[in-house]
Amino acid sequence: MDKKGRLVTIGIVIILVLAGGIIVFKIKKSRLPLVGPIVQETETPELTTWEDPAGFSFSYPEEIEIDPHEEDTENYAHLELTSSGRSGNIQVWVKETDYSDTEDWVEEEVGEKEQVFDTELDGEPAKKVAYTDPERLVVVAIDVDALVLIEMTPDEEGYWQEIYNQILSSFTFIPLEGEEGVVPETTSGGGDEGIIWEAEEVIE
Length: 204
Hints:
Layout: H1 3-31, E1 47-52, E2 56-61, E3 65-67, E4 77-82, E5 89-96, H2 102-109, E6 115-121, E7 124-132, E8 135-143, E9 146-153, H3 159-170, E10 172-173
Antiparallel strand pairs: 1-2, 2-10, 3-4, 4-5, 5-9, 6-7, 7-8, 8-9
């Protein structure tokens, strides 16, 4: 075989080797598992609304159980929110009070070792207190002449923290009959007849 023939043969061998390599690579690639981002579907809990005769409302997941403690005749409201099989809970208290603002309440009721933060509840000034023994978180506000306490005892999984945030963000004060913000019905025929205006509270 002359030199030209050998070169042709070598070229054909190289082409066959390259072609074989490409085929093997494609076969192996086709057998590799498809790897992509894992998307975890999270279910958004269905919310329902609690509207209390004491003059407030909030939304919470339907799975939560609420005990209104009807046997409690000393407080305007005493709600206990629990979930079957879980530790921790949330309690909502509305009590008669002589405190004029939350600063006075903190000064009298909160120890020096507790952490106190400024916050709001339905747009009104409030305090958030972090207790350590036992561990709990309390948001306190004054509504007209009532003390409102929303207290969370947490669990290890952080389940109640999410519910607590939902309650705080949706909490709404509802003016009761006779309180500032309720416009009585008239027979004057005016366009504002029977309208209930949002209460504007003044914290001194």
